[in-house]
Design goal:
Chain B: It holds the Pfam family Proteasome. The complex is a heterodimer of chains A (about 240) and B (about 270). Chain A contains seven helices and ten strands. Chain A has about 240 residues and is of the alpha+beta class. In chain A, the strands form two sheets. A five-stranded antiparallel beta sheet of chain A has the order 8-1-2-9-10. Chain B is α+β, with helices and mostly antiparallel strands. In chain B, helix 7 (about 205-220) packs across helix 8. The model of chain B is unreliable at about 1-10 (pLDDT under 50). The chains are: A alpha+beta (about 240), B alpha+beta (about 270).
């Protein structure tokens, strides 16, 4: 019989956390930015089909970094939770706060009870009637939950991305400005590492996944689903118009 | 539907291999379903019933219209009820039969389509949507045997196509593709007679709206359970148009009012008795 070694609970939690952090830092970053007409979700993602950003419910979106199979199963579970809740009560009763606390519960349980923790970090965003009523929640691998003020950067070298957003972000911006901030923030780690050798812009619209939650979707489009993906051509047009203006 | 997965590959079960909301709720919380119970024997009190729905194709899409009446025996249970609904962006459904169950089946079907779209990242094919609705009606068969039947009419356009298609159902969930036009509900016999004379190939959208409204006027003329347009309360039928460009859109009351008025004026001028 193999001999059992004693590992202190502190050491075990630290090992698990380090393991999860390493996995998350390997990937590329995702940015969520609130602006005047909604919330923009921008991911660096060369694949057009394996999404990091998804629709959960009428006014709620999901973004994730880390292992695809893990966050995809969390996304599907979120869609099921929201649809069952909306069907049994009412569409208005599905909130980001409820969803985020369910995610926090299951991430926390997996972190302590399973073989290995999930190597993922999630964002749950809900667009409100005004920008002050927007909610952006950050959920980390251990089930911690934080309410972020207006913007969020996660995955990869998240500190650099988050810092760049904190410097730029102001309330009341339009979509052009929000996308420009997001792309600039996603570029921050490359600039810090590359130190000028990457003169060619590697972050074109083709390697971006962009979606928005539109604030006035009911009034403007007459539908209840605020989530809309932007095609690469739209993203290029919007980013190009910033350069001109 | 996904029963063959069970006991198959466990990882697929765990990941939720089914993209169907109906399957998920059936497995986890069947009491939520409109038909998720078995009724004990007994006499059911009168319940509101929805009546006539008409649907027809036109150049560029498909249209569905329903009157506004629900009846309970000889009583008018509701004169504002809406029995035609958008199922998703490219399809609509109308329901006849027990209103309470039918409206819940509509909600379930709407969630089913949206759920699939969110999980899979793509829309179901029109045929796939029609089959899912058939599965729900079949699941309601035990209720139908107790007198709580629901008979829908489904119409839509295939994404990227412009040809409208119609599907009718029976209480066993049988699904039948219909050509040109169709109607269900108590006034459907009279509506269908009207449609046979009024429908033409390549109708434009405005004439299609007029044809549907006139068919409902004819149905309400002869069927007491079908409500006619109410000029006093300004109640017009619920009319939805589905085209590939605009998706499912409701025809606004401002458009319907002159259409109804024109039919009423013409019939008043003709002064026919029968």
């Amino acid at each position: 019989m193999a001999q059992q070694f004693y590992v202190s609970p502190e050491q075990m939690m630290k090992d698990r956390a380090d393991f999860a952090r390493k996995g998350i830092a390997r990937g590329r970053s995702v940015v969520v930015v609130s602006f005047a007409a909604g919330i923009a979700l921008v991911a660096e993602n060369p694949s057009p089909t394996l999404h990091k950003i998804g629709e959960i419910y009428d006014r709620i979106a999901f973004a994730a970094v880390g292992k695809y199979n893990e966050f995809e199963s969390l996304r599907q579970a979120g869609v099921r939770y929201a649809d069952v809740r909306g069907y049994s009560y009412d569409r208005a009763d599905v909130t980001a706060r409820g969803l985020a606390s369910v995610y926090a519960q299951s991430l926390g349980t997996v972190f302590t009870a399973e073989q290995k923790p999930f190597e993922v970090e999630l964002a749950v965003a809900e667009v409100g009637a005004t920008q002050a009523e927007d909610h952006i929640f950050r959920l980390t691998f251990d089930g911690s939950i934080t309410d972020e003020p207006g913007f969020l950067g996660m995955g990869g070298q998240a500190d650099l991305v988050q810092q760049r957003l904190a410097d730029a972000w102001r309330p009341g911006a339009d979509l052009q400005a929000a996308l420009a901030w997001a792309v600039d923030a996603l570029r921050a780690p490359r600039e810090a590492n590359g130190s000028g050798q990457e003169a060619v812009d590697p972050l074109g619209p083709a390697s971006l996944e962009v979606a928005v939650l539109e604030r006035d979707v009911r009034e403007v489009r007459g539908i209840h689903r605020a989530f809309r993906r932007l095609a690469a051509s739209d993203v290029e047009r919007i980013l190009h118009s910033v350069g001109k203006g | 539907m996904d029963s063959h997965h069970r006991g198959g590959i466990p990882s697929l079960d765990a990941a939720g291999a089914s993209s169907s909301f109906l399957d998920f709720v059936t497995a986890t919380n069947p009491a939520l379903l409109p038909f998720g119970r078995s009724l004990p024997a007994g006499q059911l009190p009168a319940t509101p019933h929805g009546t006539t729905i008409v649907a027809l194709t036109f150049a560029g899409g498909v249209l569905m219209a329903g009157d506004r009446r629900a009846t309970m025996g000889t009583m008018i249970a509701n004169r504002h009820i809406e029995k035609v609904f958008p199922a998703d962006r490219y399809s609509v459904l109308g329901i006849a039969g027990t209103a309470g169950i039918a409206i819940d089946i509509v909600r379930l079907f709407q969630v089913e389509l949206e759920h699939y779209e969110k999980i899979e990242g793509t829309q179901l094919s029109l045929e796939g949507k029609a089959n899912r609705l058939g599965a729900m009606i079949r699941a309601n068969l035990p209720m139908a045997l107790q007198g709580l039947s629901v008979v829908p009419l489904f119409a839509g356009v295939e994404t990227g196509g412009s040809e409208g298609r119609l599907y009718s159902y029976d209480v066993t969930g049988g699904r039948y593709a219909e050509l040109e036009h169709h109607s269900v509900g108590s006034g459907s016999v009279f509506a269908r007679g009207a449609l046979k004379k009024l429908w033409r190939p390549d109708l434009d959208q405005d004439s299609a709206v007029a044809v549907a409204v006139e068919a409902l006027v004819d149905a309400s003329d002869d069927d007491s359970a079908t409500g006619g347009p109410d000029l006093v309360r300004k109640l017009w039928p619920v009319v939805y148009v589905v085209t590939d460009d605009d998706g499912a859109t409701r025809v606004p009351p401002e458009t319907l009012a002159p259409v109804v008025q024109a039919i009423v004026d013409r019939r008043t001028a003709e002064g026919r008795e029968a």
